[in-house]
Each structure stands twice: as structure tokens, then as C-alpha cells.
Amino acid sequence: MANSINKSDFYYGAFLAKVIDNGNRPAIVSKDNGRGIYKLKTNGDKEEYIVYIKYATNRNKNSRTWTFQYTDNNIEEIKGYIDKGDNIIFAYICAYNDYKNSEIAIAKLEELKKCINPECEINKSNRVSIYKVPGSPVLRMYGTKRADMINNADNTIHLKRSRINEL
Length: 167
Known about the structure:
167 residues; alpha+beta; 3 helices; 11 strands; 41% strand
């Protein structure tokens, strides 16, 4: 049905509302229930990004971790944008069922590459996890290629919570 609204529309809409509020002009490239792809022009049309968006809903208010799976098709899409020379960034919508205290994490390609390895033969499932520490100015990112802790030390990639405002 053409007029139906999917769950993904709400999550992608949250991202779009934030970037439009910042004066940017997004355009949809492609979307489905597993990911959304948008072209984003920023800084008075001086910079252009492909934004690859994934979302996850956390039903447990006490949990602070969201996990995002990357399928083989997702990996091939991303490689295609990289091969074309597109500037690509990743948005992770970290939502709670009631939407309160939900977050949007923004990661750069170099940060994603530190978390997943599409060429890995041992673990075919590529995933990224975002962890929220209350009161921290950063969200913590790790994945199948990067543990969250090593020898009791934080091994996560720190993503500034305000990064979406810098687009």
C-alpha cells in the first residue's frame, strides 16, 4: 500500500529532522526496512555525503547497548559507494520503544572499518554495537572486529554525541 508508514520511516525521519534543523538539504537515494541511504549537502553545498542509516530499538530501558547487523548486501552497497569515490558516513539511530532519550550516533568510514571486517572468514556476521554511558559526552562504538574491553580497559571508538550537529 503506497500510503502506509513503516517503522523505518519514523527512524529515518528523526535523522532527517535533525539535519534539516541544522540547515542541510538531504535527498533520499534508497531505503528499505534494514537501512536508508541519503545524499546530504552541507556547508552551503560545499560538501556532499552519502549517509548510510541503520536503526535499532531497545525495548529494555535499563539496557544501553544497540546492535546493528550488516548483511552481505549492505557491505556490497557500501563498497559500491566507496568505489565511486563518494564521501560516506554512517548514522546509527539508537532508539528506545518510547523514543525518550534516543540517540543518533554518527561514524566515519575509517571508524566503521575498525569495527567490522567484510573479508573475515571466521565470523560471517558483521555487526556494530553502540553503547551509551549516562552523562558521557560520547557514545562508544565497537563490533565484530573490535572488542569493547581489552585487559579491563575501554577499547571502544568514542563518537561525540554532538557530531550530528557538525554535519
